[in-house]
Amino acid sequence: MVRIKRSTVVGIVAVALPIALIAVLAALFLPGSGQRLVTLFLINLIAVLGFGIYSGNSGIMSFGHVGFMALGAYASGLLTMNPVVQKTALPHLPEWLAGWGMSFPLALLVAILVVAVVAVVIGVPVARLGGSSASICTLGFLVIVHVVLVASADITRGSQTFFGVPRAVDIWVALPCALLAVAIARIYRDSNSGLKLRASREDEIASTAVGVNVRLHRFCAWVLGAMLAGAAGALFAHFLGAFSPKDFYFNLTFMLLAMLILGGISTVSGAVVGTATIMLIVEVLRKFEGGVDLGFLSLPTVFGLTDIGIGLAILIVMYRLQDGLMGVREIDEKLPFLRRLGGQAKAAEVPAAAAPDRDTSLKVDNVGRRFAGLVALENASFDIVPGRVTGLIGPNGAGKSTLINCVSGVVPASSGKVLIDGRDVVSMPTYTVPKAGLGRTFQNIRLFRNLTVLENVTVAASAVAAAGEDAEALALCYLAEVGLADFADRLAGTLSYGAQRRLEIARALALKPRYLLLDEPAAGMNPAETQELMQVLDSIRHKYKLGLLVVEHDLKLIMRLCDVVVVLNKGQQIAMGTPAEIQANPAVVEAYIGRKRSGKPATASQNEPSAAALQPHAAGGLA
Ligand SMILES: Nc1ncnc2c1ncn2[C@@H]1O[C@H](COP(=O)(O)OP(=O)(O)OP(=O)(O)O)[C@@H](O)[C@H]1O
């Protein structure tokens, strides 16, 4: 059951009200062409919202949704056609398709169902793909639909006009359909599934690391978007009464994509603004396309002026506003009074941490990883135990990040095993690893930059939330934990560097992990930020009693925080012991000092740990 938040309702009303007002005014005061134009706007809006549900939330441009519009149009047209007209228009129609004579509302529902079935079949391979491969796949689908429609002359009249479709759609039919589409698109965007898909659009690897099943959510958005596009196609068919396959091909695709991109691909308000703007541009330019005589000036016929106008509008807007006219946030998320109406999320109580179970552990058992011929890691073996902090150190290129990637399933180990409470990570889909109790952060911060701070953490919280648990309230609580509650409404990409690092930790904590891997949490921080981080880590360590694995070049931090330290060098595990043992270990000192002697200066990298920090006299005061 989808829970609809108050802010979602406010967002729907904020967008639906102006649309309804314009439509009612047009119906009352603009009979004829004005009313037809607004009806067409409403139908186009439904199609653009269909595109947006998939493309806007997943970040994958679809060229195929007009194919679904075509299927919706022909299916609904066939089902509603008067049997007598049908005999004339389609004399060779197969018997099982002939003579249905359905009412338009019923045919609309059946057409949406037909489109949904096709979308499910096509969606299975499309959802496996990302980026341009998926886009090309959708383009292929559009071409196939077009060719099939042209080739199936017995059913579609081929490339000839398909006529005899009852004209059942006017502004009063299109308006409720458009408002419903706005509500569906916004509810989906704000739902857990929509939020997770938007997270995967920002960073697929990071979203998988917080438990997002990217393929599943892409598939859901693909099918839902296709159903809206199919509905738009059916409405279009019953608005025009006659059409042909070329009406549902590249020209319409170009125009709908222009509407989506111009307004802002990721928002419902962007779809509305983009659709209205492009339709206005087209209307104005169409008047000039055939040439105009202004008396003092006579303009010649310019073929394709409307397409040129649309192209120019996109270029100009994109030059100034990369995210389109409305940007990445909905209108109600930007306007303070609408935000207040939507209400604030309230923090929940973080469930008390259970006492660490000493019988459970994360076992790294002889783990190795090769990249082509390069041995990045070999035979790493140690345990991460709840309630214990394990440090992982080593010079640059030692294999620390590779080890974390193998443990979290981001990169499969070439040899050995990673066992979380006895279950081998290699046998789990990567997105289920967080649910098995493992959270992580990344060496190079991987936040969902165009989602708010609260949304970043909510994505993770919702991946593990129990039924009835409010993921947003939990997320707010973890934000408070790292001192970011006051920034909940800010876009993550606008935070300071140190705050971004802490946000990544809050996001990982929201997974309620038993094991938490932190990959260079203090990298690039100034001393004040590092101090703040130390306090956060100290508090996490005592409050949640997690098994922590901390990769760091800041040896002071490691020596102060860790119970056990593992040392890697050139992919080999060269030592493991308490901080005091590590400081006294000749092999470890050699790994650092040896590098210095061999002419690789300590200044070679900003991140390179100081060999001196490993000397007992230097570190003694830190332990
Ligand atoms: N995806 C990859 N493809 C090829 N080689 C890789 C890949 N990832 C890591 N390596 C190589 O594996 C070795 C270990 O890299 P890794 O990033 O794990 O080291 P590290 O100890 O984390 O280093 P740093 O402290 O600089 O982050 C390096 O030689 C690196 O170039």
From TrEMBL:
Family annotation (SMART domains): AAA
Transmembrane stretches, start-end: 7-30, 36-54, 66-85, 97-122, 129-151, 171-188, 219-240, 252-282, 294-319
Domain ABC transporter as annotated: residue spans: 362-595
GO biological process, one term: L-valine import across plasma membrane
Annotated keywords: ATP-binding, Cell membrane, Membrane, Nucleotide-binding, Transmembrane, Transmembrane helix, Transport
Location in the cell: Cell membrane
Region (Disordered): 599-623
GO cellular component terms, A-Z: plasma membrane
A Pfam family this chain is assigned to: ABC_tran
One MF annotation (Gene Ontology) recorded for this entry: ATP hydrolysis activity
Source taxon at top rank: Bacteria
Main subcellular location of this protein, as a coarse class: membrane
Entry membrane topology: Multi-pass membrane protein
PANTHER family: AMINO ACID ABC TRANSPORTER ATP-BINDING PROTEIN, CONSERVED COMPONENT OF ABC TRANSPORTER FOR NATURAL AMINO ACIDS-RELATED
Name the UniProt record assigns to this protein: ABC transporter
Species of provenance: Pseudaminobacter soli (ex Li et al. 2025)
